[in-house]
Amino acid sequence: MKRSLVSLLLLPLLLLLDAAVGSAQDPILLGDISSMSGPVAVGGVPGRQGAILAVEEINQRGGVLGRPLKLLVRDDKSLPEEGAKAFRELVAEGALVVIGTAPSHVSAAINPLARELKVPFFTLLGYSRFLTEEVGHRYFFRLITNDRVLGHVMAEHLAKQRHTKYCTIANDFAYGRDITQVVMTRLKALKPQVEVISGCEFWVPLGTTDFTPTITAILAKKPQAVMFGGVVAVSAPAFVKQAKGFGLFNAALGVHPSIGMGVNSAGLTRKDDIPEGILTGSDYPYPPVDNPANKAFFEAFRKRWNKLPFEMSANAYINVKLIVQAIRKVGKVDREALIDVLEGMSIEHPTLGTITVRAFDHQSTAGWWMGHLIWDDTYKRAGMKDVWYQRGDPYLPGKGEIEKLRTKK
User: Fold this and answer.
1) Cα 178 off chain centre by
2) Which neighbouring-strand residues pair with 249?
3) Superfamily per CATH, domain 148-282+370-393
4) Cβ pair 324, 64 in contact under 8 A
5) How open is the CA angle 183-187-189, to the nearest 5 degrees?
6) What are the pLDDT digits (tens) for 128-158?
7) CA gap 120, 113 in Å, rounded
8) pLDDT for 69-95, tens place per residue?
């Protein structure tokens, strides 16, 4: 009788202990929204692979706070409405935070939802500056650089060149318009005689692969330079190959701040695809940056996926590592505490060195590699020569400017 009574009294305590043990073993859920289909899948797929690699490595070492990580995944299909839908679904499923190899227009659709639902979102492919400037807020983070950095670095270089008559062409979406405006506005400020030839500013749909009419029209205007930095993803290699065939880059300087990125150059699969002299950049250049951190990441990624990493792979990988670093510092799973710790936190990037999340706008200090587009014979892909690295800090707006930009929106 006494034993039965003791058992009954202890039962609630035992149940609580069982629940606590079970809770400690429940996975910490991270959401991932990436463009796994549509015109930006060329970036979404390697980005997702980088995130998976990081989660696997962390779990093999015991997880976080004694709990494994679990990646909940969605495909935004390169569409804003799909990205917004996916974000709501992942929040409903209990994701602590959400990351995404989602382009600027998709990241822009997720941005207000992150604020509304108070769930942090980290963009891995949204380089448009406005995402952490005019529309930035407590629940939006960017560990990559933004197009203010790469656009202004490019403009400074171009201002020293002889070219003054430009044509521009870009995909007609958030990033295409933003990078075109950033580069050309800064270039005109540095060199007032620069002009975009009348009738030589072109906007084409994201995913366009036939540029014959546009290239013919550009050639007829006889520009000294063509800024096509807003032509991205599957459109970028298509434009380069067709423009080379028409001799456009023999007549005019090719300018593209980011065709050195894998997401924009993956379709350049032969040496003959590469024109000479295109000025470009990347945050993960080839041949690979020669340092211990990048060697370790490069080999781990290649071993896991039997393919070469893109910039999105490294950026997603490091983003997961940063989140885990913050969770460990907080010592518990708590979104608001996590945000507080992330502000001002630094991490070592394989190719960008130490980067820091700025507390007042959640934009990282990541910089940009600049150079000229070439064929990399070692890895049989597009690469860069004459490379040099520019830190992002000098090109980012200060706290006062960020506050003014956010007030004006």
Assistant:
1) 15
2) none
3) Response regulator (3.40.50.2300)
4) yes
5) 125
6) 999 999 999 999 999 999 999 999 999 999 9
7) 10
8) 999 999 999 999 999 999 999 999 999
Between the two ends of the chain, the Cα-to-Cα distance in Å is 73
User: Mean pLDDT over all residues of the chain?
Assistant: 94
Instruction: Write the burial class of residue 396 (CB in 10 Å: 0-12 exposed, 13-18 middle, 19+ buried).
Output: buried
Mean pLDDT, rounded, for 208-228: 98
Partnered with residue 356 across adjacent β-strands are 346
CA distances from 371 to 115, 167, 267 (A): 38, 21, 19
Residue 168 CA: distances (Å) to CA of 98, 203, 228, 231, 265: 35, 9, 6, 10, 19
Alpha-carbon Rg for the chain, nearest whole angstrom, is 23
Q: What are the start and end residues of each CATH 3.40.50.2300 domain in the chain?
A: 23-145+290-366, 148-282+370-393
- Alpha-carbon separation of residue 311 from 145, 153, 231, 271 (angstroms): 12, 19, 18, 21
DSSP H or E stretch at residue 255: strand 253-255
A 10 A CB-CB count for 356 gives 17
23-145+290-366 — its CATH code?
Answer: 3.40.50.2300
How many Cα neighbours within 13 Å face the side chain of 165? 12
Spatial distance between the Cα atoms of 114 and 59, rounded to a whole number of angstroms: 27
Are 290 and 299 contacting, i.e. CB atoms less than 8 angstroms apart? no
CA 109 from chain center: how many Å?
15
Using CA atoms in the order 324, 328, 334, 337, what is the torsion angle rounded to 10 degrees? -100
CB atoms near residue 323 (< 10 Å): 27
96-125 pLDDT tens trace = 999 999 999 999 999 999 999 999 999 999
- Residue 18 is predicted with a pLDDT of 39
Beta bridge partners of 352: none
